[in-house]
Amino acid sequence: MTDRLPPLTALRAFDAAARHMSFAKAAEELNVTPAALSFQIKSLEEHLGQPLFRRLNRAVELTEAGKTLAPGAAEGFETLTAAWRATRRLQDNTTLTVTAGPGLTAKWLAPRLYEFARAHPEIDLRFSATLRIMDFVRDEVDVAIRFGYGPDPGLYVLPVPPEWVTPVMSPELAERYTTPESLMEAPLIFDESIDFLDPPVDWPAWFRTQGIDFTPTHGSHFSQADHAIDAAVAGAGVALGRRGMAITDLHAGRLVAPFKTAIETKAHFRFLCAPGTETRPQIAAFRDWFIAEIDKTAYVSDEFEIIPVEDIPPP
Amino acid sequence: MTDRLPPLTALRAFDAAARHMSFAKAAEELNVTPAALSFQIKSLEEHLGQPLFRRLNRAVELTEAGKTLAPGAAEGFETLTAAWRATRRLQDNTTLTVTAGPGLTAKWLAPRLYEFARAHPEIDLRFSATLRIMDFVRDEVDVAIRFGYGPDPGLYVLPVPPEWVTPVMSPELAERYTTPESLMEAPLIFDESIDFLDPPVDWPAWFRTQGIDFTPTHGSHFSQADHAIDAAVAGAGVALGRRGMAITDLHAGRLVAPFKTAIETKAHFRFLCAPGTETRPQIAAFRDWFIAEIDKTAYVSDEFEIIPVEDIPPP
DNA sequence: GCTTCAGTTAAGGTATACTTATGTGAAGAT
DNA sequence: ATCTTCACATAAGTATACCTTAACTGAAGC
């Protein structure tokens, strides 16, 4: 069985050569002489039984065999490099890479992080605001904060109490719209970032909690929660604000939540990291800070009557 | 920058040890002595700066660092192995691996392949009936035959003329249902495997070609084209048969297509392989045979009035 | 308490991989 | 034309990484 791997140094030499399309540059990358690289490629070709490169006089080009091997070789070594880097990163207790959705980043994390940074000056914090699902090893991320239902198989999970939503608006608008009924006339803001919730947590659901059967048909739509909140702050209308997204602006007085009925979604934020890494100093510190910040504003929930979404009467 | 890869032999030793969770078995796999393997692991741990395994007395277990590295290492080496195997396979001109959907495999390829096997006894043919999208390198497949629209970026493509569909039924049923109108009373068979076509090629479309506005509401549904054809052969009803799927049974007299109106879909079969590989002897031979077989039955199309699907009047 | 098992350690040999130095053929410059 | 340069090939010598043999350790199991 010659299906086993050829000498790995030779394969790596080939990978570098194929990426640079030049033996000389590949040799430079690997810190060896061009002669050594030439030898490696030759030995690999002997293992294979056919050439991988066509030697033109001032350049090289890949043969069919080379074209077949090159992408896989590149991907393989990239995977190995990523895994190795991730492993090395475990010893690095001074950097912490966190990813969260753009909404939470803008409206919750960013306004609070200065405190974390002050409490832990030794930690070099990096941020990645994306909704993309993360592979902790491949993407070199330590912590992810995600909104949704879970479950999160194979991960360390620290759930936060479920989110609830309630109408929020600028203080000026609040003077005009004082009753649930009056909201039917108000300019409404739609946050499409929670459209994926099932059962839906939307304006018709909230109106039903008030005994009102009303399906608003127009208004401003935003794909990101923070933009919807920003629009409400700007006085553009009334938004169904998620607790985590609106809390900062509520505290600052830029938003008010005049109606004391909120809908509890079944979804919540989760603090996620690779299992075992929750004890690394910077991750533990971030987790503790995160929990403490959440707890700081927990009392707000007491002001509201929170109705689980499944208890809302159907239309 | 110590983010560069560590010695690859050491990494491979680690990979084997992590997969087997045993240095001894890993050494066996790599055809080295346990001592050598122990050394490799130790050197890797020195490179990393921390242990990868915890040595218990009769076993080893992965440390956090080991758990982080192991999956990536395994994936990386798997990728490299697959790429290397795919490259070696290029020299092998005696095996040919073909993948096609289950319908085409059952109703078109299988009944014809004995001829190809007889004409090319030197070729060892392997079959993989699946609809899954294939990666020619990773999945070790030489040729894929796929139904749909394309395009197929980065692949060698040999398109076959578009498919058309026409009602097919057993000879017994054909005595009873002699006019398009009578089909409205017939048990109809639905082939869901072409539901993805847009514009749709379905019973209502065919009825419209006959000037009939009729949307059948019940009948037997099959997710695979070959099952729909089999049901028609068995006399269970009338199917909208795709040319490629029905042709064998039409020739054998097990099915008849009494109405001479067919709908041409915009989709067609494509013969796909990795660019450059179309000249490999066994792939070229299979391609030539494939084209020749298609041509053999091309005259059948002359019997039908073939209406492009976009020319059918809307409902 | 002896045996076995799984991994470690040390010493020494061998094959692998690298370097230096020289060679080759074609493109581009003068 | 011829000269230079460039990119890779080849040869010979060397270093080092890798492997083997052989003896060691410490715990589990009969």
**CATH class designation of the largest domain in chain A:** Alpha Beta
- How many beta-strand runs of chain A? 13
Q: Alpha-carbon distance between the termini of chain A?
A: 67 Å
Strand content of chain A: 15-25%
| Strand order within the widest beta sheet of chain A | 9-8-10-7-11-13
How many domains in all of chain A?
A: 2
CATH topology category name of the largest domain in chain A: D-Maltodextrin-Binding Protein, domain 2
Task: Indicate the low-confidence ranges of chain A by residue numbers.
Answer: none
Largest interface: A-B, 41 and 41 residues
Largest β sheet strand count, sense and barrel closure of chain A: 6 strands, mixed
Q: Which range best describes the helical content of chain A: under 10%, 10-25%, 25-40%, 40-55%, 55-70% or over 70%?
A: 40-55%
Mean pLDDT of chain A: 90
What gyration radius of chain A follows from the Cα positions, in whole Å?
28 Å
Number of helices of chain A: 10
Tell me the overall shape of chain A. elongated
Structural class determined from secondary elements of chain A: alpha/beta
Give an account of the 3D structure:
2 copies of one chain form a homodimer. In chain A, 38% of the residues are buried. In chain A, strand 3 (95-100), helix 5 (102-119) and strand 4 (124-129) form a beta-alpha-beta unit. Helix content of chain A is 40%, strand content 19%. Chain A is of the alpha/beta class and 315 residues long. Chain A has 2 domains: 8-89, Winged helix-like DNA-binding domain superfamily/Winged helix DNA-binding domain (Arc Repressor Mutant, subunit A, Orthogonal Bundle); 91-315, D-Maltodextrin-Binding Protein, domain 2 (3-Layer(aba) Sandwich), CATH 3.40.190. The first copy, chain A, has helices spanning 8-20, 23-30, 34-48, 64-89, 102-119, 171-176, 203-209, 225-233, 243-251, 281-296; strands at 53-55, 60-62, 95-100, 124-129, 143-148, 156-159, 164-168, 188-191, 220-222, 238-242, 261-264, 268-273, 305-308. The first copy, chain A, contains 10 helices and 13 strands. In chain A, helix 1 (8-20) crosses helix 2 (23-30) and helix 1 (8-20) crosses helix 4. In chain A, the strands form 3 sheets. The first copy, chain A, has a 6-stranded mixed β-sheet with strand order 9-8-10-7-11-13, sandwiched between helices. In chain A, strands 4-3-5-12-6 form a 5-stranded mixed β-sheet. The A-B interface holds A 2-6, 8-9, 11-12, 48-50, 64-65, 67-69, 71-73, 75-88, 90-91, 137-138, 274, 276-277 and B 2-6, 8-9, 11-12, 48-50, 64-65, 67-69, 71-73, 75-88, 90-91, 137-138, 274, 276-277. The structure holds a DNA duplex (30 and 30 nucleotides).
